[in-house]
Hints:
Belongs to the sigma-70 factor family. This is RNA polymerase sigma-70 region 2 domain-containing protein. Residues 228-296 form the RNA polymerase sigma-70 region domain. InterPro entries: RNA_pol_sigma70_r2 (IPR007627), RNA_pol_sigma_r2 (IPR013325), Sigma-70_RNA_pol_init_factors (IPR050239). With 339 residues, the chain is an all-alpha fold. The protein has three domains: 20-87 and 113-135; 153-297, Four Helix Bundle (Hemerythrin (Met), subunit A); 300-339, no CATH class. It contains twelve helices and two strands. The chain has helices at 2-36, 38-64, 67-91, 112-130, 137-193, 199-206, 210-230, 232-239, 249-266, 275-294, 302-322, 328-338; strands spanning 98-99, 106-107. The termini are far apart. The model is unreliable at 1-17, 90-107 and 127-147 (pLDDT under 50).
Amino acid sequence: MYDQIDDIRMPSQDYTSTSSQGSHVKEKSRFNLLYKNLEKIEEIFFDEDLVTLEKDILMQLGKIGALQLFHVCLSRTLQTSITTNYSTQLTNNPREAEIDNQVGDVIVRSTKKEERKSRRERSLEKPGKTSAVMPSSKTISNYPRRATGSTVGNLSKSRIRRHNVARNEAEMSIRVKDVAELEKIRTKLEAESGQVASFRRWAEAAGIAEKVLQQRLHYGWFCRDRLLRSTHSLIVYLARNYRGLGISLEDLYQAGKVGVLQGAERFDHMRGYKFSTYVQYWIRKSMSSLVENHSRVIQIPVTLSRRINKIKKARRTLYNVHGRNSHLTLRSKLQKNLS
């Protein structure tokens, strides 16, 4: 009886062992299948992220206003890629398939690249409908030429602008000189006669007609005003070096304008330098002379005050370097270097 029971129980144990082995085999096969398809799953997620990224990029380009330019460049690249694909298809026979001798399977070319291109084209066609119409092939072919021409045109425009500015400054300085000469003639007449010179006597002394004198004066005053306006920012920039010396900024600006007029009367455009570079010396000179004449109670000559300032500057630099009062020889050497 017990032997029969044992005989009956033995098949149940075999059945449970076989069922557990079968489940283990199934799980193993599932893991193997998942491992084999892991690369495909990653590529699917990567393609989805790529499509969303492309949509975000296109949205940002649409906000900036450069979407049409992006379409032009992309169409050019797609045209070149299509021509290269056609050439490769003509050279290679599509019926010939490479056979792997070890496995015995036929190697088929991957179509993932074409799928990505088709997805990209579909994603581009959607915003393209709402944006603008694609330009024609003529505009696409002329686009790089137009870009290179625009860069060259910008360079030529900047050169032309600089040339026009230099020419206008030279013309205005000449007219300022003319007005200065005419005003010198009037002051000379007034000094000789002791009376205010009339307009007719002024024209006779200048050797020109009254109408011509009036025209030259008006044009010269206009050029003087234009020069003062164009150099106002330069005057403000140089006036910052003279703050805190007992002179207000308005007085420094007036002194800078006087320096601009003095530089315009002495400017020679034939030497090749710019007016703004030349006039800086006269602006600094006018401001420094104003500071030296009005910052002290006792007036000192300009040349002597400049020497005193150089000595003070040399003493200050030596004290900052050595931390003590150095010898007179070192001070004189440094003063020569600064001068």
